[in-house]
Design goal:
By secondary structure, this protein is mainly alpha-helical. It has helices spanning 2-27, 43-65, 80-89, 101-117, 133-157, 162-191, 200-218.
Length: 230
């Protein structure tokens, strides 16, 4: 019963926080805040994107700390080793989550720069950098990684019903596939400037196919959870 209450609370908090993040994402696509160029954001739009990083990192830490013993709830996660330690202290095998460590720690470092240095790289900076294509790519990877981490932990502790466990396990698998596809998409973008102009259209079409694959991968259907006994 206690496990069920904790599980329900974690689920409610996760969906609350992801809803808040979704609200900020929706806001940046309103007319006054649309990007001025492809993958180019500055001013208020860029600062909202930075706020999303902070909220996302807080969501990640909330997921993790909810499983920690009380005396370790203030544990700071700044490296893969610390993340593995936190999972071990929670009685959770760290190995299934290790592929998520690099983007999660990368996100933690960016959050630290935003919170403690206003996202300015150098002490002599008097203006913030444009939020560009690399930042956009990283943020989407972090969103996928945090969601995958949530479903991985839900699968590990198995605090919900059988139906919930099936959904969570499937979402975990699909998010990881989406992350691999997102890496592939990033590779296509990086290669684009090196290609001759006549190949740009073909390369962009391949990139669009990857994006559509990600969208299909993340779409759940009731048929995915019906066991065929025939």
């Amino acid at each position: 019963m206690i496990m069920s209450i904790r599980s329900d609370l974690l689920k409610a908090r996760f969906h609350l926080n992801m809803g808040r993040i979704n609200g900020l994402v929706t806001l940046i696509f309103t007319d006054p805040l649309r990007p001025k160029g492809l993958f180019q954001s500055d001013g208020v739009r860029a600062d909202i994107l930075r706020a999303i990083v902070v909220f996302l990192h807080a969501t990640f830490e909330d997921i993790l700390r909810s499983h920690l013993p009380k005396q370790n709830r203030k544990l700071t996660i700044s490296s893969g080793a610390m993340l593995a330690k936190a999972l071990t202290l929670s009685g959770i095998d760290a190995k299934p989550s290790k592929r998520l460590f690099p983007p999660l720690i990368q996100m933690a470092k960016r959050r630290h720069r935003i919170m403690h240095n206003a996202d300015l790289k150098n002490r002599t900076d008097t203006g913030s950098e444009i939020w560009g294509v690399v930042d956009e790519w990283q943020l989407i990877m972090w969103l996928l990684a945090v969601m995958a981490f949530y479903y991985q932990l839900r699968t590990a502790v198995n605090g919900g019903s059988v139906a919930e466990s099936m959904v969570e396990s499937t979402m975990n698998e699909r998010l990881r596939k989406a992350m691999l596809s997102w890496v592939d998409f990033g590779s296509h973008l990086l290669a684009l400037p090196e290609l001759p102009p006549e190949l740009h259209r073909e390369a962009l079409e391949k990139a669009v196919v990857i994006l559509r694959t990600i969208a299909v991968t993340l779409k759940l259907d009731v048929n995915d959870f019906i066991v065929n006994e025939g």
